[in-house]
């Protein structure tokens, strides 16, 4: 079996790298291929370990390089993507009454075919803008979009038209990243800005029966007819319409009671990557074990959300306030956002105390939006974007508080020393 240290592999890779490096002069300024310099450098960075260190815009303060950090996050997202694809197929064959006829691989294949076009659009459109921006500025392309491009198709409905998705990506990459200076300078999470653009520009494509595929995708699938009792609303969408009579009732796509196992496993309508707590937990474990994500932000976000939900449970003035606190953490994009979005090292707080405050407020505002505004049953997106804007302010006050305390200690020590000398 060949390994990365196998002499044959090393010889081949060294030979390939030498040939790749020999092409470099053709991409220099004034040469015919200069227009594709950023593309050449981007592939070189992706294929080989960079020999240069970052000169500016460093947002991961560690010995690990940015490429490894981004690839680690992508690996952590794979369990969510795989289960999300399976769940798409499961929901489709469930509502068409053909769950028995189509087994595991058919469900996974259906979900893959539904996911693939959005995945390709996300990377093609986003990377095209990244390459163009790097070429215009004569800079190296950043690996930051490796994660963003994977996140976007995981947090939008499978049914969003491709042209809408492309338009949202163009808007978010340009106005939420490029205009701020690129990777390491943006203050808002680009993937969430994409979802927010779709949410406010095309609300009908982001709510209602858009989460469960009922037709064939790329020529594959079951019947186009759904069974009686079908409802494509997500659990949080149902909470938003609760009345005194229906409060406490959550159902599956067929109107059957939604169980705790359904919430944990993720076998329910929702965004592709956001439904499975098990898959998200695997991703969280990868991020924490590798030190890529902050455990403080994760714990603070879950803690803030849980305590806020308990507070509303105690008040119980509206049907939405009666949703159990633990359900809030497992429904919608709360868990996914807490693990993969809130911990974004570029847009989150960087001070250790600030991370606790940042996470607590994300959890607090997410539950407040869910409970107090039925028009926005999913508050995690808005909460994280709000705290993205406030993260620098939180860090500023934390640093100023530390400086003030140290100044007081220094003044006190100086006064004590002066008093001792005078005696």
Could you please describe the fold and organization of this structure?
This protein has 423 residues and is mostly helical. It contains 15 helices and no strands. Helix 4 (104-137) crosses helix 5 (145-155) and helix 4 (104-137) runs parallel beside helix 6 (162-176). The longest helix has 43 residues, at 380-422. It is flat, with a radius of gyration of 25 Å.
Topology:
Blueprint: H1 7-22, H2 37-47, H3 66-95, H4 104-137, H5 145-155, H6 162-176, H7 190-201, H8 235-240, H9 260-265, H10 277-289, H11 295-315, H12 325-330, H13 334-341, H14 352-372, H15 380-422
Helix pairs in contact: 2-4, 3-4, 3-5, 3-10, 4-5, 4-6, 5-7, 6-7, 7-15, 10-13, 11-13, 11-14, 14-15
Based on CA atoms alone, the radius of gyration comes out at 25 Å
Helix content: 55-70%
Instruction: Give the amount of beta strand, in percent.
Output: under 5%
Average pLDDT reading = 86
User: What about the largest sheet?
Assistant: none
Question: How many individual helices?
Answer: 15
User: Span from first to last CA?
Assistant: 80 Å
Output the helix-strand order.
Answer: HHHHHHHHHHHHHHH
Structural class: mainly alpha
Assembly level:
single chain
Query: What gross morphology would you assign?
Result: flat
């Amino acid at each position: 079996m060949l390994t990365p240290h196998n002499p044959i592999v090393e010889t081949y890779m060294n030979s390939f790298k030498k040939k790749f490096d020999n092409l470099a002069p053709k991409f220099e300024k004034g040469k015919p291929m200069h227009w594709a310099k950023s593309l050449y450098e981007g592939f070189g960075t992706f294929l080989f370990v960079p020999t240069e260190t970052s000169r500016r815009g460093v947002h991961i303060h560690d010995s690990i390089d940015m490429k490894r950090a981004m690839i680690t996050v992508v690996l952590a997202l794979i369990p969510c993507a795989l289960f999300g694809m399976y769940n798409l197929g499961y929901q489709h064959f469930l509502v068409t009454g053909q769950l028995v006829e189509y087994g595991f691989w058919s469900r996974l294949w259906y979900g893959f075919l539904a996911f693939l076009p959005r995945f390709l659009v996300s990377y093609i459109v986003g990377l095209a803008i990244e390459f163009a921006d790097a070429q215009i500025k004569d800079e190296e392309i950043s690996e930051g979009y490796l994660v963003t491009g994977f996140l976007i198709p995981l947090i939008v409905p499978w049914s969003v038209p491709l042209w809408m998705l492309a338009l949202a990506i163009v808007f978010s990459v340009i106005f939420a990243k490029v205009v701020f200076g690129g990777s390491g300078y943006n203050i808002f999470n680009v993937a969430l800005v994409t979802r927010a653009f779709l949410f406010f520009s095309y609300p009908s494509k982001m709510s209602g029966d858009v989460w469960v595929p009922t037709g064939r995708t790329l020529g594959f699938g079951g019947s186009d007819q759904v069974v009686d009792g079908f409802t494509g609303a997500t659990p949080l969408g149902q909470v938003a319409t609760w009345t005194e009579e229906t409060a406490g009732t959550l159902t599956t796509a067929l109107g059957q009671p939604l169980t705790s196992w359904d919430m944990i496993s993720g076998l329910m309508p929702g965004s592709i990557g956001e439904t499975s707590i098990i898959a998200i937990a695997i991703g969280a474990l990868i991020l924490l074990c590798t030190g890529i994500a902050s455990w403080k932000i994760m714990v603070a976000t879950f803690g803030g959300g849980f305590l806020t939900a308990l507070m509303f449970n105690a008040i119980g003035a509206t049907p939405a306030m009666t949703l159990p606190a633990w359900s809030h953490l497992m429904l919608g994009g709360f868990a996914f956002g807490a693990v993969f979005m809130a911990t974004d090292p570029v847009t989150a707080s960087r001070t250790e105390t600030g991370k606790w405050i940042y996470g607590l407020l994300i959890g607090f505002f997410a539950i407040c939006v869910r409970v107090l505004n039925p028009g926005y049953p999913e508050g995690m997106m808005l909460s994280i974007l709000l705290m993205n804007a406030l993260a620098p302010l939180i860090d500023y006050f934390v640093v100023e508080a530390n400086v003030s305390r140290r100044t007081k200690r220094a003044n006190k020590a100086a006064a004590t020393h002066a008093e001792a000398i005078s005696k």
